[in-house]
Amino acid sequence: MTEATPVRNVFFVGIDVDSMGGSQRVLHTLAQGMGERGHRVELIGIRPSPEPFPYNEKRAYTHSTLYAEPARPRTQPRTVGQRLSLARRAETRRARAERDRARRELEQKLTAVRDGYIVFGSPWAVDWVMPLKWDHLKGIGQYHESFAQAKRGPNLGLIRRLYPRLEKTLVLSDGDAEEFRNQRVPNVKVMPNPLPFYPDALAPLDTRKIGAVGRLDPIKRYDRMIEAFAAARGGRDGWELHIFGEGPLESDLKRTAADLGVGDQVVFRGTARDMESVYRELSIVAISSEREGRPMALAEAAACGVPCVSFDLSGGVRELVAHGRTGTLVTPADVPGLAEALGELMDDGEMRTRYGAAGRVHVRQLALSNVLDQWEQAFAEIDR
Length: 384
Description:
The protein contains 15 helices and 13 strands. With about 375 residues, the chain is α/β, with parallel strands linked by helices. It has 2 domains: about 10-70 and about 95-195 and about 365-384, Glycogen Phosphorylase B (Rossmann fold); about 210-365, Rossmann fold (3-Layer(aba) Sandwich), CATH 3.40.50. Helix 4 crosses helix 6 (about 155-160) and helix 8 crosses helix 13. One of its GO terms (molecular function) is glycosyltransferase activity.
């Protein structure tokens, strides 16, 4: 903290802040960085994660969760009798009482300080908190996905309705900022996600391992990744695909790999705690998702000097991967194109080294200290 920088009260609030995911990692990284700068920071999850990831062993911030249990899926009643049943009515009363208790707990936290900021990790967090008393704080709404993703579902409606009531709306790219402004969302500012690390030692890129990082959910389309790897591996001995993450599709994906003849070459590594070490053991990082905003895996890999191959999914992806200079972008859903791009980097160690070095320079501005400086500027703008 410099002498001219005031100590601030900052609350980060999200629905689930502890699962292994890009937005969760960003919240913990920001909370840690601001705490280390001397701000009073609390990261608050509304619901606990069913699979919590141990972010920041030594925390410079307070961390709490409002509900004791993850949300339980509710089945929709099929008949009037089911809708009016005593058991269902009792469950509705119990859920409402638990919600009210959680909201009272959060309100007590927010009113314990005289001033400060509340940073919402998602539109759903804003919706949940909006009924409470917190008008002595200044609200900042983040959106960690692209505008294209927002308009596919309810997020855009929530942002249009709720974010104009906040001081700032933070999005990940210039293109997304323009799109949200066109939707009459005011006070939009571009705020990149910070890197959790920017190591001095770069990955050697000689391991013949391709890496994919993320939960094993349908949106990640790891079936396409495995298909592309199987096609690219033909005639290229020694290469493996390592997938880091857990999720419901692991058994299906293992069958896919076996059916394509690469069951022994696709390695499911589960959740990794030390992601910096993970990237250092890879030679290529790849993304085959259905959609992405600004995936942290691309930025983190580049920080470690690992070249990236990705479907060209959004402005955020294009800002992280400079096609033909730091990595390769492929038409979305083009599995043969993904296989070709992987094969080119698998064959050319000099290209991997060149792309990796350029990628590290390309994401240098995302180092945590640089992004925290931008947050300080945003706070100052709000205070004026």
